[in-house]
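Structure, all two chains, one model.
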Amino acid sequence: MMATEANVNINAEIGEKDGVKAKLRRLCRQNPLAVISAFVIVAVIILAACAPFLTPYREAQQDLLARLQKPSSAHIFGTDELGRDVFTRILYGARVSLVIGIIPPAISLVIGIVLGLAAGFFGGKVDYVIMRLADIMLSFPSLLLTMVLMYTMGRYANSIVCIFAALALAGWASVARVVRSQTLSLKEADYVEAARSIGVGKWKIMFRHILPNCIPSLIVLYTLNVPSCILSESTLSFLGIGVQPPAASWGLMVNQSKQFLFSMPWLALAPSVAIMIIVLAFNFLGDGLRDVLDPYLQTR
Amino acid sequence: MSKENVLEIRDLHSSFFTDSGVVRAVNGVDLVIPQGKIIGLVGESGCGKSMTAKSVMGLLRYPGRIESGSIRFMDKELVGLPDKELRKLCGNEMSMIFQEPMTSLNPVLRVGRQVEEAILVHGKAEKRAEAKKLVLDMFEHVGIPEGEKRYSCYPHELSGGLRQRVMIAMAMVCRPRLLIADEPTTALDVTIEAQILQLMQKECRESGMSILLITHNLGVVAEICDFVYVMYAGRIVESGSVCEIFDHPAHPYTRGLLHSMPVIGGDQEYLYAIPGAVPNLLRLGAGCAFCGRCEKAQDRCREEMPELKAVGEDHFSRCFLHETEG
């Protein structure tokens, strides 16, 4: 009888679960914009992946007899000065933007996590050296930095690889700062001390006990880094040092259409709006995720 | 050292080296824990109880460190032992339960995995399945019902009592020789407190494990301890068996502590409190640290530090009073 009583008590003591489903529901209710953004991002990914099936033209297929055409049923967004279908190039350009939006922030995330954890956990000289490096990275204008890197590396490697390297190198410092500050407070946590008291080693504490507790802020940081990388790529391509023609990139398309800005505005408008939509979608998603994942904002 | 003693602390000094000076939080503590006994360490907040425990477990962090003294565990000297060696002992041969079950479990790891970690770190099981079985046995042992279900719970899904049981399971899963319990029941309510204390006592009787129970709750001490050390401002001021301490408290501080316990049915209108507060450890004078609050303080108390002197069988006290009285 005693045992059953204890069971009932303990079952009653167990609190309600705030699981993933509940979090998603809260996200939908509080921030519909973030949910719409998520759908937009998924749609763009599908469009980019299915590009060859959605359009009869190829990315760099020229039709010099049909140059600079107005939007029509054959060419939804018209054609550019070499007779290439703008809609097709937007679809293929989305591939570039997505890949550049997703991979370099991931690389800088990994570098930032490792360096930030090391700085926060070991402190002292390690901390000093890593953080001064980060300070230097952050005090240097990142666009200028990527431009310099693109110029110097461009001779040795493919332009996409260069953009990856340049953007990843410019982005790790902010990640490292966030991870370091979280590590500094988390390593004083009772459960880290408890883990030490049962003999768990340094590395396990860093990666098993401290890192998982940083993940919510890292997700937010990542989703906010994505649009800034997309923008950087567009800027670099617009300036002519990013993606090289004939490959399609939204920034490059804006650049090539700037001379027709007043006579045929749709040529510049289509890629510009595409950039705007994807950047806004990632930003809204990032904001929404922050609201859901940040424990300090959860009381609302 | 004698075979029966699991832990012997001799003249331990642990200090914090802060910008405003050296805080001697543990100032020459001698403490012995025999096998299979429950030893109480009592005192007010900030008197160095937890610092003593952390010194043993090697958990002191900058700016705190052990200055001098000796901590012998079994036949190993822990002071000066490399961190790697110490980590091998921690959780395996000796382990610790913390005060705050709410924050001592990692919120993003399932509790079963956290207990399992102690087993895997010390290589007590080869495979995870084996370790899981050990964990479930331990859960049952410490009175966590439906262990299989609890195994995959996150800490926030459990109540305070259950979490403290998980902490105890984590500390005991490798069957340590010594368990340091740093105010294990302070954050729990009274019914759960009794259960947890019973559990620790049972463990002590059945497996011959020794326990160092750090607490400021004298009721708990009277309940389960065999021997008591009273600590004040980084020093042991009185030590003796539970009966001796409760029946014949020798040091004015111990008397004050006992006197401040509320008595049910007593006719006192106000609860007694020792006047004043624990002195600032940065500005300790040469004399007895308690003299500022002691009713029987003499001039000598302010100038000289009394030694620990025997006042009975296995009963020591650090006070000049006994010389004049005796």
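The longest strand of chain B covers residues 5-18.
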